[in-house]
Design goal:
39% of the residues lie in helices and 31% in strands. It is globular and about 35 Å long.
Length: 121
């Protein structure tokens, strides 16, 4: 709960096609309470895949806790299981620090931007 007139942090996850590549854009604060929003969008996304590539654009993520990192690991695992290349883009700030401290940066395929990821894919 937030005191005073501070609004509750918002998290959104939206997806769209860039050519045949599906991109999910996460925005806001990803924590234990907002994981269901990401899971719902991911469930839709797995059904929309037209190419064996899924890009998670995290450039607008302002916060990510350990639950969010766990969810990213789950997405990676599902990608490996289903033969889908999962790419993270826009890693910065809090998420970059947490992934670095946990030694998880090498676990993910990471590009600076969606454009860079699409070009490399």
């Amino acid at each position: 709960m937030f005191a005073g007139n501070q609004p509750e942090p918002v998290f959104t996850a939206t997806s769209g096609l860039h050519g045949t590549t599906l991109v999910i854009r996460a925005s806001g604060e990803l924590d234990h309470y907002r994981i269901p929003v990401l899971r719902e969008e991911l469930a839709r996304a797995w059904g929309m895949l037209r190419a064996p590539i899924l890009i998670l654009d995290l450039s607008a993520l302002t916060f990510c806790d350990s639950s969010g990192i766990g969810e990213l690991l789950q997405v990676r695992h599902q990608g490996l299981t289903e033969g889908v290349r999962v790419i993270l883009t826009g890693i910065q700030g809090n998420l970059a620090r947490r992934l670095t401290l946990a030694g998880l940066l090498p676990v993910f395929e990471i590009f600076p931007s969606v454009a860079d990821a699409i070009e490399a894919a």
